[in-house]
Amino acid sequence: MNSKKQIVEALAKVLPAEITAEQITKLIEKPKTSDLGDYAFPTFILAKTMHKAPNMIAEELVGQMDQTGFEKIVNTGAYINFFLDKAAFSDAILKEVLKEQDNYGNQNEGSGNVPIDMSSPNIAKPMSMGHLRSTVIGNSIAKILTKLGYSPIKINHLGDWGTQFGKLIVGYKMWGSKEDVEKDPINNLLKYYVRFHKEAEEKPELDDEARAWFKKMEDGDKEALALWTWFRSLSLSEFQKIYTRLGVEFDSFNGEAFYNDKMDAVIDTLEEKNLLKESQGAEIVDLSDLDLSPALIKKTDGATLYITRDLAAAIYRKNTYNFVKSLYVVGSEQSEHFKKLKAVLKMMGYDWSDDIHHIEFGLITNGGKKLSTRKGRVILLENVLNDAVDLAKKQIEEKNPDLKDKDQVAESVGVGAVVFHDLKNERRDSFDFNLEEVVRFEGETGPYVQYTNARALSILRKAGDVDFDGDLTLADPEAWDTLKMIQEFPEILSRAGRIYEPSVIAKYALKLAKSFNQYYAHSKILTEDDGRVARLALVKSVTIVLQISLALLGVKAPEEM
Ligand code: ARG
Asked: What does the CA dihedral 7, 8, 12, 13 come to, rounded to 10 degrees?
């Protein structure tokens, strides 16, 4: 069922042979208003080859075209306007969706392993809104790529190594206690961390102490490693609570520490290829030819760095997964880091570095201000989710006080609202977070899409058993917009995957929900006999496509709300 293909074929028969089907496909437009048809083809580019005015060309071509399979083909000025045969179109698309169900839109666009580096919070710090973005964007991209034929591998590259652990150990030893940490691990660890930074401003010797503790960690000191292991496992179980609420699972938790024994090999290769240079006692790779600052591989004291671990991780992933591409869902502020990472890999002779893509995203701000762990200006993700769920619950109490499983539905709606809000924005854009706006049941929100789906499901419940086997021709002009959107879904999905952009799906879901609500307002779906089965098939198809879309975003679809 591909109406665009049908148009390309009709055009190819009358256009000069040197214009390829691919070129034709690219030129086809969607008219602004439906009175100009479903698709239009501009003839301007033909003027040169055909030596005629575009509107004459349009008129002439229309005269030559075979109109079977279309309601009509006409010319308007320089455009050829195509009106699809609504009866045939509706029957075909509804049958296809009902047959494919959850598999509707599945494609074989590609195959092979695609590691996705996502979430990757830092141990001993609360998971921030930025890590939420990485988590939900990564999760959604994984689902989209799966539907397109790829095999994603979700990797949580935990920030579980680095000088911050030295700081934490110093802070813990000075101000902490076992009991406090056990009572409220993340908050107390964060407290030591924030206090460390405040006090280190006056007492820089604290920084030296912290460096020394991290060095001990790298040298395998027992006490240092025991504290580290303890902080790590406490943090991880806190993070796990959030992942469970978000419904996100990982294939690997190999964080930075995992690469400790894999960096020597990287440094050896860098040396062999003569890429390491000494600079003020440190080892660097000079990237000035590429207009990038040097990649700092080893500090003066021998300690390795973030990028050293990322080099080891990139190579490990290639060797382990033999990926077709390797994605890193990390904020835009690290774009320089990923440029350097790719550049150094390339210099090492790894041409597959071209398959590495930094899937960057913007900041979530609070009142326009950047959030910062060091300054203690954090929004705790857990609180955000709890507040969202409370707000959802309040609205459910008002709208549907008798609903069963109110708490569970409120959880799906509240958490879903936060996730949806994050994904509906193009990932590179920064946006402000305002809870009231996020959890509204009307407007461009997740709850609006969920609510539309629940309402459509309730129509189907009222309809009882319906046999969809017969003719599903739906001639209602009000249904046309919704039908066409359903048919566009596979194209939307493939676009979302090509540009790694879940917002394409979120925006589509909003549009489809809106279009369906309009249809619902203007049509007697249940009460009129004539065409009832086809109308219900449309309702059913809408629920299928809305549910696929929500699932692709990692948002639940409650049956009632
Ligand atoms: N832990 C880092 C942070 O919070 C993100 C890690 C991203 N992944 C990577 N392979 N560098 O900033």
From this structure: -30
Q: Atom of ligand 1 at shortest distance to CA of 130?
A: 4
What's the chain's Rg over C-alpha atoms? 28
CATH 3.30.1360.70 describes domain 3-84: yes
Q: How far apart are CA 300 and CA 29, in angstroms?
A: 60
Per-residue pLDDT of 115-152, as tens digits, reads 999 999 998 888 888 899 999 999 999 999 999 999 99
Looking at this protein, which amino acid is placed at residue 4?
A: K
Fold entry, domain 381-553: Isoleucyl-tRNA Synthetase; Domain 1 (1.10.730)
Decide: residue 400, CB within 10 A, 0-12 exposed, 13-18 middle, 19+ buried: middle
Question: Within 101-148, where are the H helices?
Answer: 129-147
How is the chain split into domains, by residue range? Answer: 3-84, 381-553
Cα–ligand 1 centroid distance for 275 (angstroms): 25
Distance CA 378, CA 431 (A): 15
Cα(121) to centroid of ligand 1, in Å?
Answer: 7
pLDDT digits (tens, 9 = 90+) for 8-27: 999 999 999 889 999 999 99
* ipTM greater than cut 0.90: yes
Distance (angstroms) between ligand 1 centre and the Cα of 335 equals: 11
Residue 455 has phi, psi (to 5 degrees) of: -65, -40
Of 544, 470, 475, 484, the residue nearest 98 (C-alpha): 544
Structure tokens at 496: 């979302």
